[in-house]
Structure prediction request, 191 residues.
Amino acid sequence: MRTAVLFMVLAISVVVAACGNKGGSPASTVPASGPGSGRVPLGDGRISFVPPTNLKQLTKEQIAASKFSKGKPPDYVFANDSQSATVGIVLNFIPLKPDELEDYVYANHRLLSMAIEEVQFLSEEVVTINGRQWVHFEVLSEVPDIALHNHQYTTSFNGGALVVGFNSTPQEYPQFKDAFLKSAQSIEVKE
Prediction:
């Protein structure tokens, strides 16, 4: 449970930082894994996905110079120009085994409820994406300085938690919703 609390602190800071930065450096484009595919490899290449076309990958320097740098920043961030819509990816922050996903649903709900005063849960479930089980949370929340609409997907990878969070302001969510959901369905993880 202690690692779950640490993870939620990270997840909340990722969500807040992901949509809280109104300025900063413009994003840079990172090449995809194949000509015209749009697929981006992450880490050692065993994780990949197709980010929404209107989001560009931030460099490590851009992440470090932004609000994303507070606490433990995400390993990868994709953002629109104003950084009001983002995809944040965190690799291996806490231990998480595949058989702990159901327990994670309960623990994550409880911790989000304690950490965010008026969080609204729209979905909390275990889903299958490309043959792999993921915990999916869709939440609306008011956090300091910003309201957020967040889809968070978490799975076990290499004995730890792999988290992919899709975030935008509620006002912008309708324009990003389809791209977020399509991008989430593109996530591939190879053992």
Summary: The CA atoms of residues 77 and 106 lie 27 Å apart. The longest strand covers residues 132-143. Residues 1-36 have pLDDT under 50 and may be disordered. Residues 2-20 form the longest helix (19 residues).
